Amino acid sequence: MTLAETLLPLAVLVPLGVGALLLGFAHWLTPRVADVASVTVAGFVAVLCAWLAREATGGAIVHWFGGWSPAVSGRPDVVLGIAFSADVASAAIAAFCGLLFAAAFMFAWSYFDEVNSHFHVLMLLFLAAMVGFCLTRDLFDLFVWFELMSIAAYALTAYPLGPSALDGAFNFTIVNSVASFMMLAGVGLLYARSGSLDYLLIGRTVGHAGADPVVLGGFCLIAVALLTKGACVPFHFWLADAHSVAPSPVSVIFSGVMVSVALFGLSKLVVLVFGGNPDILDLVRGALIWIGAATAVIGALTAWTQRHLKRLLAFSTIAHLGIMLTGVATAGGIGQAGLLLYLVGHGLVKGSLFMVAGMLLALRGSADEIDLYGKAKRLWPVGVTMALAGLLLGGLPVGLLHGGSHLLDRAVERSPLVHAAQVLATALTGAAVLRAALRIFAGISGAPGPERNGITEREHEKNVRPVWLMLTPAALLVLLVLMPSSVGERLARLGAGALVGRPAVAAVEPAGMLAQLLPVTLTLVILAGALLRRRPVRRAGRALVTAERLPFGGLGVLHSGLVGDYVAWAVLGLAGLSVASAWL
Amino acid sequence: MNVLPWIVAAWLFGIGLYGIVTSRNYVHLIGCLSVCQSATYVLLLGIGFVWGSKPPVFYDHPPGTPAVDPILHALVLTDIVVGAAVTALLLAIALQVQKRRGTIDPRRLRPMRDPE
Fold it and tell me: Which residues in chain A are closer than 8 Å to B44, comparing Cβ atoms?
């Protein structure tokens, strides 16, 4: 075994082990020890996985646990063991998880002192689960990491024990548990056909299965589970409830990586397991792409009508997940590359924005953009960070996020409607963030539009750390996004190539000036519309406002906060996908 | 393979979901979730079952004799552990909700929306 193969399991073992140690000694350690240990472990995972990604350029690094490699059984078509397989893309995404966790731990420095490092233990468990989810090559192992990730996330959401946090955590747990049952059933169906849990062996069986209903059913169930975790319409309802009530350092991880890693998992399965089956690829290309477009538009429109900053960001995450799903749905190399780059860029920006929301909750005791009107002018460095993040979210043509969205544009260039949905979602979410930033940090705003009727809540977070300590990770994350997109694009093409079994995905030509500036221009136009808005005094103006309220109000009614409704929508979605699988 | 386990699994999943959608009590809702989960157990055991075969313990009969698939048993066992953890967590949340709000009716407990 090479050194890389030997060290591969450490990416999961170290966070798990340190988490267990912290839990064991929780009552004796001073709180700083837990903070230092967690940041170190997250940093270690990031460095190790980045090194693994570099080592994997020549071919995936595979570690068979306990030495149970196929060679042991003597027959290459019988796999008894469970493997971790680090290709460039998986290792890079795992490294990104480590990086974002390190930033979140820094941001949460001394915030969770009174709970005896339990926060750190749960977060380390969460990190290990995410890394395992990225690296595993075994379908049931994937399910176990998926569950571990979910359980850590449920507990972290319910953590503040406030009424909203408990309700949000409850909805989150129920919806995601139903999803995980679907996933397990799907794993069972695929095992029933292939007699194996190894990605590549299942892939071989699935490739010859044709339109076998058992395989199609397995795909639908697994896809719905991952789409629920990845918050795509109509499985997305839990996300806004959970992300807006979780403590801010946790929301950073939720919106930054947890949900998008689920979509990365889906794209990996689509390529490695289901890639050989034309019937399933038809379903992916014909149905998932429209789910993605719908998610982008609905998420963006709902984000625009929010006044509670964390809820606004949560819906913007939904919109961006929709954009990522369109990349998954192309099931091609460029779409994969776009997904990888967009995932990283979006995670950095969104992590930073949730930190800004956390700072406002700590320093100004609210996250409501209308309540906070002009109240944070003295925190201008925070405002600059937020405005920069908003501009990047709205399609400013520099940096990693732009590189990702350019690749995704290219991947869907044959469907102009999907492309239009991408641009609209980018512009609306960017404009919503900029609107809030201007209102809070500069006191500039028009009359409140549909956001005035958004859901809000009085809440605050403890103010226990200096401003610079909170601002540094937020600013660093945004600065990382500004890395030249050409570097990111090269890496993403390399990573996507490793997934689809080629050295690298072919380069795409750069977009024209007009296409590059289109989203950010649209963002500024929408923002200007919001700033110029005045209270209607004439009858025509009032009629217009009433007419506007109807569709936005309808979106609000759909997001009812009732867990029964959410599960009903999820079942409807599963039924829809199954019908589509028979039809397409 | 017999079709009965598939029907039972689908039925259990269906009524579990029906219970979750219509429930007016968190504890009842958690029970319904467990019913849904039982559907996956039945499905997995049904997949691994082989008529006329023995348990996959080769202590008193020679290796090579037909046995039911032990991998699916391992899956079910793992799932039971996970299910226990989730149920415990949910019940703890329900307990806290009852303590803080005095009700566990989902219709009166909606995140960030004041109870009517």
Answer: 184, 188
